[in-house]
C-alpha cells in the first residue's frame, strides 16, 4: 500500500460553532464541509462519535471504511510489532478542531474509569498542537470539593467554573498534553491538531448557552454522581500547568514525550527519513512529497492530510523549498521501532 491523501471528514451540526478555519487551512483540495457548526475534521478515524455507529468514521477513497480495512488486514496497516503489542487497535484518533466559539468546560475519563464504568480499553487523554494563537482554560487553580463541583454543574455556574481555572495562552506551534480527567475549555479562535485516545468520551461540566442538552447527554449515560468522579478536582500550580506545554514553535522531533503511553506527535521540517509505521500526517506549511522505496511519490501541500499504512514501508520526506512542516501523528510506541531521523542540519 501507498500513503493515502484524505479529504475532510466533518460530522455536521455539532453543538458548538466552527469550521471556517478548517476550510481556510485545507483549501479546496481538502473538500471541507460548508456551514458554521462543522468544527471538527476526524482524520484517519476508526472511532465513531459517542452513541453513533458510523458517524465520524473515515471512508477510504476506494470505498470501504478505514475501520473495516484495518480489521481485515491489521498487519498491513499497523505492522507486526504493533499487532503483537496492541492487536488491531489503531490506538490514536487525530482531529483538526476549529473553535468558532469557546468550548464548554468538560473533562474526559481515564483508562481505569472507562474500563470500570464503560467496559472500554481507552479513556481519553488528549493533546493539542496549536496552529493559531488562542487562550485555553486548563485545570483548577485550587482544590475543588465534590459538592462544590456538583453544585456548579447543577446550577450551571459558569463564572465560578472559569474563575477557578488556569488560563494558558497558546501560540502557533505550541504542543500541550491534556491528561485524562483534567477540566479544560479551548478558547474561541483556536485551530488545533488534536491527538487523543480513540474514544469520544466527554463529561460536560458546562453546557448553558450551547446547543446540547447537557443534563441528559453530559454524563455518558452514567449519571453525574458517577461521571463527575472522573474529573480531576486537584488544584495545580501555574508551573504544573505550564509544564503541560511540552514544546514550542521552534521544536522538532517528539513534541510530547510524556504522551508516549497514549500516542506520539512528531514535527518534521524539511527533508527526512521515516521508518515504516502507521501514521496520520498533517501538512502545516509548504510542499513536498513522501517517496517510497520504489520511487512512488505522494505529493504533500499545506492543509493536506495523509494516511500512512505500515506496509508503505520506509519513506523519504522530500521538501520543495525551505518551509515544509509536517506533523506525524502516531500510535503509542509499543514494540514498534524508534522514530526516523531528521537529517543533521549542522
Automatic annotation (TrEMBL):
Q: Which UniProt keywords apply?
A: Kinase, Metal-binding, Transferase, Zinc
The UniProt GO MF terms for this protein read: kinase activity; metal ion binding
Concerning InterPro entries, the annotation shows:
Carb_Metab_Reg_Kinase/Isom (IPR051804), RmlC-like_jellyroll (IPR014710), RmlC_Cupin_sf (IPR011051)
Q: Look up keyword Transferase and say if it applies.
A: yes
Gene3D superfamilies given in the database record:
Jelly Rolls (2.60.120.10)
Q: Which CDD domains match?
A: cupin_PMI_type_I_N_bac (cd07010)
Zinc keyword on record: yes
Classification via SUPFAM superfamilies: RmlC-like cupins (SSF51182)
Question: What's the protein here called?
Answer: Carbohydrate kinase
The organism is Cellulomonas triticagri
